[in-house]
Structures are given as C-alpha cells and as structure tokens.
Amino acid sequence: MRHGESRFQTCVVRFLRSLGYQVFSVPNGTRLKPTQARIAKAEGLMAGVADLVIMLPKGQIVFAELKNPNGKGRQSAEQKAFERCARALGFVYKIWQDWADVQSFVNRTQALIREWNADHENTLH
Fold first, then answer.
1. Which of 10-14, 33-37, 113-117 tops mean pLDDT?
2. What is the arithmetic mean of pLDDT over 54-71?
3. Is the Cβ–Cβ distance between 51 and 78 less than 8 Å?
4. Cβ neighbours of 73 (radius 10 Å)
5. What percent of the chain has pLDDT over 90?
6. Does residue 66 lie within any of the structural domains?
7. 67: exposed, middle or buried (C-beta count within 10 Å: 0-12, 13-18, 19+)?
8. 86-101 pLDDT, tens per residue?
9. Is residue 124, in this structure, part of any structural domain at all?
10. pTM for this structure?
11. Residue 125 maps to a domain
C-alpha cells in the first residue's frame, strides 16, 4: 500500500469508528517474509481482498477498496476478481478515492448505525 493510500485508510478507519461503525482491515498489503507468507496463505490470506470490511446492522457487510486520493491508484486484476465475486454473492463493494466517497457512504448509512448503537449500547463496550 502506498503512503498516501495508507494515510487515507488510517483516517477513514478512525473517522468511521468515531461514528460507531464496526470496521476492520484486511492486511493484504503487509510485507511478509517468505515463511510468514506461506503460513498466511495457508490460513486464508487471499490477494485482492478489499482493504476494509464494514459490518452494518441486519447482517450487511460492505467491502471498501481504498485508492490513493491522488487519483493514480488502480485496481489490480485480483482486486477486480474479488469485486466481481463479492457483488455476485450480493455484497456491497465500494471503491473510495476521496473523502466525498466516504461521506456519501456515511450519509446513506449513519442512521442505521446510530439506531443500532443506541439499541446495543453495552454489546461492544
């Protein structure tokens, strides 16, 4: 992951968590030693998986692929294949290249998050 994309992802995760979203990353961009890479692949690490997984109420899962806000980031062949698979299985897949993309998602989902958090105040704390 490039530095600009890494900073963008870090800020997105902090922002979403501050609003009560349950979000976690998939460490595909992590550099591993050959032995660690073999173990990680055997444990299920898969190229192309989206950068973030966001859990929404009622069993909804959103995969978010973040690209460098400088506009130069492009999906790899593996990322495109994962997107096709996720969409075919009925999951939401987003590509976020700037804050407008993130804000649009929040605008559409924040009411669900607020309601769920109010109903489940003690579940995750």
1. 10-14
2. 90
3. no
4. 17
5. 59
6. yes
7. buried
8. 999 999 999 999 999 9
9. no
10. 0.86
11. no
C-alpha–C-alpha distance, residues 84 and 8, integer Å: 24
- How many domains in the chain? 1
Cβ neighbours of residue 67 under 8 Å, at least 6 residues apart? 5, 73, 74, 75, 95, 96, 97
What's the rounded Cα separation, in Å, for the pair 9 and 23? Answer: 11
Instruction: For residue 79, give its domain range.
Output: 3-119
Measured CA distances, 54 to 13, 21, 22, 33, 96 (Å): 10, 7, 6, 29, 13
